[in-house]
Design goal:
seven-stranded mixed beta sheet, alpha/beta, 31% strand, 9 helices
Length: 270
């Protein structure tokens, strides 16, 4: 008998891409998130180019890196995000900076670019879409194959928040209302949460309700693998890496239980 598809697994995989399919709204939602951009640009300037960015998205970090004079290659799996990054580069970057930016469609778990990088980055929770040990291992193997001997991998993931994981399943939590930049439609915004403790995946349903027509309601899922600090250290260690620096903020303050993010600088173990 053939194995039946796992409905929860299908939901997780749908939540890996759905949030990124409306790239114009994505850019609106995160337009004020700037501290991580400054952090990654300063790293790129300190290391020099080229930089490989995994999960380049709509180009929020990569465009700023190219604008700062550093060559950057970005890999992105979601076509809408890649198209938005290319459009933004055409509109926002001068020709010289545009020439320093290469954008490629690809899966961060399986890529071969035929070159090495002194800095590989995965900003803004990209690794939280690696839902299994094999996903992590394949990604880190690709990183090893593309990292120079003295190169560094730098990435950030959310610090797991037990309060968020225990929110009432199905309850709608109200957020700030939004106006969609493409249509001008005003939406009331809500979020619902569900945590799968076995898979360690936090599933968020983002609900948009038309303020003028409540029957016009849309929902978009987001799935994020939760990584505990000691778990991350073990995964890195047994895949040939060591943590060089670990911070809890983008201005390099120590990691504590109250921090929003874990920011890791990682080197290959020799």
């Amino acid at each position: 008998m053939s194995k039946q598809p796992d409905p929860l697994e299908r939901r997780i995989q749908r939540g890996a891409v759905a949030h990124y399919e409306d790239a114009i709204y994505y850019d609106l939602a995160y337009r004020r998130r700037r501290q991580d951009v400054g952090f990654y640009v300063e790293l790129a300037k300190a290391h020099g180019g080229p930089v490989l960015e995994l999960g380049v998205g709509s180009g929020r970090v990569a465009l700023a890196t190219a604008r700062a004079g550093i060559e950057v290659v970005g890999i992105e799996a979601v076509p809408a995000m890649l198209a938005q990054a290319r459009s933004s580069a055409e509109r926002l970057l001068p020709h010289g900076a545009r020439d320093r930016l290469t954008l490629r469609k690809g899966d961060i778990r399986r890529f071969a670019l035929g070159r090495k990088f002194g800095l590989i980055t995965a900003p803004f929770n990209v690794f939280m879409h690696l839902y299994s040990r094999s996903d992590v291992e394949r990604t880190l193997r690709c990183v090893q194959n593309h990292l120079t001997p003295r190169g560094r991998l730098v990435f950030d993931v959310i610090m797991p928040d037990l309060r968020a994981m225990t929110r009432s399943k199905g309850h709608l939590y109200r957020g700030p209302s939004i106006t969609h930049p493409s249509t001008g439609t005003h939406y009331e915004y809500f979020e619902a949460f569900e945590y799968d403790a076995v898979r360690q995946v936090q599933m968020v349903s983002m609900v948009f309700q038309n303020s003028a027509d409540p029957s016009d309601t849309k929902s978009s899922p987001l799935s994020q693998r939760q990584f505990l600090p000691q778990e991350l250290e073990a995964l890195l260690h047994y895949n040939g890496f060591a943590i060089e620096s670990l911070w809890g903020t983008f201005d390099r303050k120590p990691l504590t239980g109250d921090c929003e993010s874990q920011i890791l600088v990682v080197k290959a173990r020799r």
